[in-house]
Amino acid sequence: MGVTVQQIADATGVSRGTVDRALNNRGRVDPEVAEKIRRAAAELGYVKKPRKTAKKRKIYRLGVVTHLSGASFMIAINRGIREAAAELADRGVEVILRESKAVDEHEQMEMIRSLKKEGIDGLALMAIDCECVRDVVNELIEEDGIPVVTFNSDIVGTKRRCFVGMDNVQSGRAAAGLMQILMGGAGKVLVITGYFTSHVNNSRVAGFIEEMKASCPEMEVVGVQGSFDDAQEVEKVVENTMRTIPELGGILLVSSGQAGIRNAFDSLKLEHRPRVIIYDQTPKNEKILREDTADFLIDQSGYIQGYRPLHILADLLQKGLQPESEMIFTDITIKTKYNL
After folding, report:
1. Would you state the torsion angle of the CA atoms of residues 194, 98, 129, 312, taken in this order, to the nearest 10 degrees?
2. Segment holding 232, helix H or strand E
């Protein structure tokens, strides 16, 4: 058994604290006493134990990939991402964000591959549901063992851990019920989407049409028009449709470009506008509600969609905690000008 600090203290007639300070050169000890302690330690064969060094904490790197970065609904999502990243920094988690302005599957595929090269440990993905993205996601999960959580828009045919976002089919059904109330159960409705490649938009439209057929047999969907999430395109679609179908009673816009509806109404100088339902609570859309350009707004809790996936991935990697469910749906919130 090695020589202890207490034995040196007994041999020199000082306290253990004085021995510790002298041997480790910390604190104030009389030079003569310190020399006496060191000499006794050497004679007794004392071997100083190496100091334990703090174990270096692993830094986890989480990638985030989004698209439609300029869309108004991304304001809330990006706020959630930023706040989650700030909180997780204290837990040794670094967040790397990659954004795209368009719905470009090849660009998204390359962003995922770029993040893989940067050594990410997990990926939060606002997915474009297509074959090439599906292939690279499955490669990431199955070959590299990197967990993936999707948010806002899901991707089928993958082993992603979970999805965080709105039940878009159900929100479309809710929109159909609201439109039925607004129009008294009869009339013609125009549906405007953003991109026909968008899983989110397609799900909302599918839910709307499904519920209309089931519950509103006297209401007719006169068409589903694309707008590329652009206000000018929305304006053209509304103007052209209303010139062709002046009796149009309702408009459902499931994507961005809401200002185009107001511009079209101003251009057409309507005495009575169609009933309008839009998506996403943003400052601009709140203004559209207050100005009576739209009747209802359906919000998807974008902040939660940006915030939750990063915490789910961090808990999985650091604590081994699995998501509570495969489908984590955010609230479908209905807003009017009276409850903003």
Report:
1. -120
2. helix 231-244
**C-alpha–C-alpha distance, residues 335 and 340, integer Å:** 6
How far apart CA 317 and CA 147 sit, in angstroms, is 9
Residue 176 CA to residue 164 CA, distance in Å, equals 23
- 47 contact partners, CB below 8 Å, separation of at least 6: 2, 3
Mean pLDDT of 154-158: 93
**Bridge pairing between strands 219-226 and 275-279:** unpaired
**Residue tagged 């707004």 (tokens):** 297
Where exactly are the structural domains of the chain?
5-44, 60-160+302-330, 168-299
* Dihedral over alpha carbons 236, 238, 242, 245 (to 10 degrees): 110
Specify the CATH number of the domain 60-160+302-330.
3.40.50.2300
pTM score above 0.85: no
Amino acid at 186: A
**DSSP characters over 122-137:** EEEE----SHHHHHHH
**Whole-angstrom Cα distance, residue 13 to residue 30?**
14
Q: What does DSSP assign to residue 118? A: T
Closest among 296, 287, 299 to 336, alpha carbons compared:
296
Same fold, 60-160+302-330 and 168-299: yes
Q: What is the DSSP string of 304-328?
A: HHHHHHHHHHHHHHHH-PPPS-SEE
Q: What is the pLDDT of residues 258-270, one digit of tens each?
A: 999 999 999 999 9
Q: Which pLDDT value is given to residue 5?
A: 87
Q: What topology does CATH give the domain 168-299?
A: Rossmann fold (3.40.50)
Residue 14's identity, in one-letter code, is V
What pLDDT, on the 0 to 100 scale, is given for residue 52? 60
Tell me: the pLDDT tens digits for 50-70?
666 556 778 999 999 999 898
Beta-bridge partners for 122: 62
